[in-house]
Structure formats: structure tokens, C-alpha cells
Amino acid sequence: xxxxxxxxxxxxxxxxxxxxxxxxxxxxxxxxxxxxxxxxxxxxxxxxxxxxxxxxxxxxxxxxxxxxxxxxxxxxxxxxxxxxxxxxxxxxxxxxxxxxxxxxxxxxxxxxxxxxxxxxxxxxxxxxxxxxxxxxxxxxxxxxxxxxxxxxxxxxxxxxxxxxxxxxxxxxxxxxxxxxxxxx
Length: 184
Fold this sequence. Notes:
The chain is mainly α. It is built from 9 helices and no strands.
């Protein structure tokens, strides 16, 4: 029996496919640079999302846009995340977010809403242990919230940080047999 792929590997493949679909549109380059009414481009809009899937698509789109030959978006993204981020850059991200946390509480309500989205996606897969999957997602967010390779906004990073605790708690409750439907 082969090794189960890491969650990040699964998400990289999904994000690369999604970015490839976006980039295959005839007007992709122009639409990705277009600034909307919210004063954000499509990539910047993705970077305001706390969802890892959106963050990885944004990275994939930035990587593809920085190459003259787009090639295999999934491979570019996988290569980019194969090497760990610099510990100095990670620490700088952590300090920035921790300083913001001194002034205001973590946005737990946004973290709960994002956790519910993740849980719904997990529950759509038949035969999956939701508790174990939520625990995997919590571990992923423990690494991603301060990952400098993401272009995540400060607010998105704060939500992602809060999601670590929220996802762990939801995983624990599911493992103890609680029904989380309607809890957010």
C-alpha cells in the first residue's frame, strides 16, 4: 500500500488545476490584472481569503504570470513549495501578525465560517473520517498562516491563525461524537 499524499500535495494539485483552468481563458492575462470595484485584482482578492485553496491558487497564478512559458502550473507550484521557507521570513510574518493581535482579538467568527466550509467539503467525501481530516487541516494551517511564500493579507493570516484552534476544537468534538451541524 502506497503512502497517503500529504494534504498540501493534494491542495497543490487542486490549486494548480484550478489556476490552469483560469489561465486557459483567452482573456486570462487581462482579467487577472483588472482592478475591480473593491480596488483589488483577482489574485489580490484570492489573497484576502483565509482558505488555503484560494491562497495556493493565488500563488500558482503569480508563478505562472512570472514565467514566459507557463508550462505545467502544478509542477511550478509543487517545486515552489518543495523547499521550505526561510526561518527568518517565517519569524518576520509571525511577529507582524502577533503585533496586530495585541491591538485586537483574533477574528474567531471568520475562522469559524471558514472551518465550516472546510468541514462541508470534507463531509462531501464518502468514507472519510471528518475528525481526522479536520486535524490534518489544523496542522496545515499551523504551518500556512505564517508562510511567507503566500501573498496572504494580514487579515487573512490572522483568520488562518485562529483557524488552527477552531479546526482542532471541531476535530476533538467530532471525535467525541458531537454533531457539529449548525454549530459555527
